[in-house]
Amino acid sequence: MVRNEVEVLALGAGPANLALAVAMEELAAEELAADTFIAEAHENVVWQRGMLLPWTQSQVSFVKDLVTLRNPRSKFSFINFLHSVGRLDEFVNLGTFTPYRQEISNYLQWVADSMSRVRIGYGKRALSVAPIWNADGQVDGWLTRFADDTETLSRHLVVGTGRDPLVPEQFAGLPADRVIHSSQYVEHIADVDASAVRRIAVIGGAQSAAELLWAAHQEFPSAETTMVMRSIGLKNYESSKFTNEIFYPSFIDEFHAAAPEARDQLLREMHLSNYGGLAPGMLETLYRQRYLERLSGEERLRVITMTDVVGTRVEDDEVVLSLVDRRTGRADELRCDLVLLGTGFRGTMPALVRDLAAELGIAEITVDRGYRLQLPATDGASCYLQGVNEATHGIADSLLSVLASRSGDIVKGLLTGRRTVPALAEIG
């Protein structure tokens, strides 16, 4: 087992920790940047890896990149990326604020490749994180073990690995080759034998489910594609200019200071601004396709609303979904060859964070306004959580909108709490 030592270890090279890397290079170049290491489980940086389809676009303005809202003069901006790769004129001529996901993904890799001080390591999947205790029962640092038989000792830890995929329990028992979550669609759909698929069921009623429906409809031109959802129908995102003010970085202070019942109300009312709706273009595409198919009499795209999937089984080499109509209580069955889950991600903390909290003896995982995990006792060590704090920091916490400001907050917190400490080897 090879052990490395750094002052700051960040897990995951997604947008959250790449924004942190930019903030390190701009705000802590002399103090922390060179002793910061980002560990990425994959061999490259890809945004929304499972759903990186060629026609998909971001629903967020390119101005909300990794840095612009914190430092509009930064060399790490999306605009400078376009200029650097010779595509700025073409993008301007495209006339949109919402780039294709592939272009954002390319931007993120460009930022990762542009780091001069912060180091990024690929193929480093974290298996566990354990606190290091001193003689006084205080946390001195963290020991992270990776799947490549290495471990890293750090004073500070930043977790930016995202949430765990939500696979509803009724689908958990299906064979792995019969069910694909949206987070793994691109990777696993390539292994599916198209000639063996005649019917595809898509579960969910928001953007990811709609994208799965359209992708499967295009990729399997001979198959019927059926979306099953609990709601009354597909809806637009709530995206009025008034509503969009909740995505301002300045709104975080207002949300964080609100009473618990007010936070709950805000999260409920803002659900359609991120989770429960679709982009207008996707809605239009699906509706027109369904209309054209009904017009031609060859209907391949179907939508079943207000229906629960209460069970699943495999029978005669078919996946059978047991359905219940929420309006009438009527039971029915839907037979298919493949199930695609657009069911999103778990609202709970990621498993790695929950396991760490158990080691620390923390019953309730909470962070302060600066995203620092509340530890029982610490002697200079800290742990920051990115993208999993909606309950305390608002619905924008998992989105691109607040990346620039949040990374600045975390770096400033690290610098403020920094002090002279023993060499890391001494606390191992």
Automatic annotation (TrEMBL):
One of its GO terms (molecular function) is L-lysine 6-monooxygenase (NADPH) activity. Pathway: Siderophore biosynthesis. It catalyses: L-lysine + NADPH + O2 = N(6)-hydroxy-L-lysine + NADP(+) + H2O. Transmembrane segments: none annotated. This is L-lysine N6-monooxygenase MbtG. Its cofactor is FAD. InterPro entries: FAD/NAD-bd_sf (IPR036188), Lys/Orn_oxygenase (IPR025700). Keywords: FAD, Flavoprotein, Monooxygenase, NADP, Oxidoreductase. Its EC number is 1.14.13.59. It is an enzyme of class 1 (oxidoreductase). SUPFAM superfamilies: FAD/NAD(P)-binding domain (SSF51905). Belongs to the lysine N(6)-hydroxylase/L-ornithine N(5)-oxygenase family. Gene3D superfamilies: FAD/NAD(P)-binding domain. One of its GO terms (biological process) is intracellular iron ion homeostasis. It comes from Streptomyces dysideae.
